[in-house]
Amino acid sequence: MATRRSTRLTASKEDKRDQSEETWERCAACKPDSPVANKAKTVWAECEACGTWFHWDCVGEGGDISRVDKWYCKTCLTTQPHLQITYRSPTRKSTRKRARLDYANIEAGVPPDQSDPNRWLHIIQDKTIHPDTFRRVKGDELTKEWLETDPLAMTEPVVIENPEGLGMRMPGKDFTVSQVAELVGHDTPVEVMDVASQSTSPGWTLGSWAEYYNTPESQREKIRNVISLEVTGTPLAEQISPPRLVREIDWVEHVWPATKKGKGQFPKVQLYCLMSVARCWTDWHVDFAGSSVYYHILRGSKASLCSAVIKLARIELAQVFYFVRPTPANLNAYEKWSGSENQGSTWLGDLVDKVIKVELTEGNTMIIPTGWIHCVYTPTDSLVFGGNFLHSYNIATQLRVRDIEISTRVPRKFCFPFFTKMCWYAAEKYVKDLKAKEDFSPRVLEGLAALANFLVGEARSIERGTGKEAKEQVPGDRIKEPCALARELRWRVRNARGIDSDTEGAAPASTPVPVHAGSKRKRTEEPVVENGPAKANGSVSAGTSVNQPSPVTKAPSPPVAPVAFRHFAPRPWVEIRRDSAVSTCWVAADSIPEDGEVSETRLLTENSEGAAELQTKVDTIVKTRRTTNKDGNAQLERQSIMRTLDVFVWDPSRDVKMKDDGEANNTSLPVSDVSTNVVGDRITKSSSPSVVDLTSAETDVSM
For residues 237 and 233, what is the distance between their CA atoms, to the nearest angstrom? Predict the structure, then answer.
């Protein structure tokens, strides 16, 4: 069901991205030799059939895009003759409801399909909005130690009323929009949004914007907004630096290579200048890739909602934020709302648990954590500096928001630039750190587990040959074997979390298994019994009896979450030796015990009548780890694990009655894992071919 065309903003000429990751200046219809600088490509049109976006300058043939109702590209018109471009009647141009989601409006701070910029202010007067209970802290309290020790750190917005102690550099309070234009350049193109008509206004420069901004409010014909001016690399950037904590955890600072920060080579998202006039509104959105945000009001005021509606009629001077907490249910509601045709006429606050209001005034700073859904109202002219950053303390939510962007078909130019490449650089860094035995908090390790699973998925696409795009996102100059790197990260993270698992798709043991409809398997984890027979790695001590599994298949039970201890991560074992040995002999087939000791069989020569071949494989693993006992003394633990597999093979044409000493032992390994001349699964004594696997009790000796 296609709807009318939507508009998009292109990035400025200074903000070109790597073509493999971002498409900022060219569309599918651009000619290779077309000089980008000669075209004011600020309006994009989407084909209603295939969903591809084009510059209207490239495909419009000089037509007026405001007259177009439904538009199709030449390829779709050729392959589907029944399609036809339609035009709107001039009498309905300003009244017809448009339900298509407009990401440019969301990014630029405009409610979609609304001509009245004050519409939402009237709507929320009758809504329920909750006052915030977020922490107000001093600047020197925002430290990395706070982030490592406080389980609530960076899980909800934090307001810093006085910037002193933040380690942040900002221009003086008397800094003006005119000075922004002087430092960045009066002729610098800037993306300006007309709030009332929800459309971009081409041809704006910082010089003309400063002139508009300085016009008295009563003389402004329209309400306009600028929130996407990134100033990295300009003289203005020399006067700005993010808060100290942000710089200490920002992936751009600590993950992205310093040698790859040239023009157009890295994500320019750290230094934004936002210039909003009175009565600007930014609709509900999540910052790209769930990135966190620092936000400092130099002049003016802001107000924000967090899933609790506010009586905006009472707001006069405060800038208001409206927040929705990024719970799984709320993110699901946001995802459905974003992709809904009724998005332009539906208040998201009606679909979530609650909306929370935060008022900010001049001089306030706020840190918005990963994934928080928010909208913003600006009652007075404001000058704000802020930036986006990815970090390691909530990687799972960052990836979840990325999934939402994919499912709602957000164009790449509105996503976090170089996001996948950034993830690969993060994997490279953390593999090195884990190799060096650096300690990480359980919170970081949990995030790294999510990162590893994401990259393993990318690796599988590359291996299957279906991930051309995934392969292009790998920084090949530094990462030569991405598939190996992804799996090594997963393995090292599991070791650091105390999880012993070599299964390709195994879920981390400390992660609760979600309950899904149609679940067919029961995933449980037995609690560790101190000094008891059950070992943490699932092995069995020598001489310990093992309850045999029942041959009857039981109905699946609901998944059971494993026992988890908060902030507990045992020191991992270090494998120092792994040996394998295989021996072959011949025994009397009628003396083979199905659950007894192999030593009870009678040895024969190779060609003796009734002889069965016995292959024995012994695997030995030796691991060590250094720990500290309760008295503070250093201690070394050494663990030796021996696994023995016995495989009996004989001529199936001979009717051999085997020795029966009791119930069959069903604990076995697939024969194909250890022997190339035996094919198939383990066969019982009445089956054919005649193959019997006997696995002796696994010996686990820890010293």
Answer: 6
What pLDDT sits at residue 2?
A: 32
Q: Is residue 395 located within the same domain as residue 458? A: no
Q: What are phi and psi of 504, to 5 degrees?
A: -55, -45
Q: Do 271 and 129 reside in the same domain of the chain?
A: yes
Same domain flag for 156 and 297 = yes
Assigned domain for 236 exists: yes
Say which residues have a Cβ less than 8 Å from residue 557's Cβ, sequence separation at least 6: 522
Residues of the chain with pLDDT under 70: 1-25, 32-42, 89-117, 196-199, 301-318, 344, 500-570, 575, 594-601, 653-703
Chain centroid to Cα 50, Å, comes to 27
Spatial separation of the C-alpha atoms in residues 319 and 377, rounded to whole Å: 6
pLDDT digits (tens, 9 = 90+) for 579-607: 778 888 878 877 777 655 555 667 777 77
Structural domain that includes position 436: 419-496
User: Cβ–Cβ contacts within 10 Å for residue 450, how many?
Assistant: 19
What CA–CA distance (Å, rounded) separates 316 from 289? 33
Query: Which parts of 231-372 are beta strand (E)?
Result: 272-276, 280-285, 292-299, 302-306, 319-324, 356-360, 365-368
**Report field, pTM of the whole predicted structure over 0.70:** no
Residue 295 tokens, joined: 């936000």
Burial 398-410 (b: 16+ CB within 10 A, else e): bbbbbebbeebeb
Q: Based on the domain organization, do 463 and 397 belong to the same domain?
A: no
**In this predicted structure, what is the pLDDT of residue 327?**
94
Residues 504, 491: Cα–Cα separation, whole Å: 10
Residue 162 lies in a domain: yes
637 part of a folded domain = yes
Q: How many residues in the chain?
A: 703
Does residue 259 share a domain with residue 119? yes
Whether 646 and 682 have beta carbons less than 8 Å apart is answered as no
Closest CA to 367 of 333, 332, 321: 321
Cα separation of 520 and 512, whole Å? 16
Closest alpha carbon to 496 in 576, 427, 569, 568: 569
Residue 342 lies inside a defined structural domain of this protein: yes
β-bridge partners, 55: 44
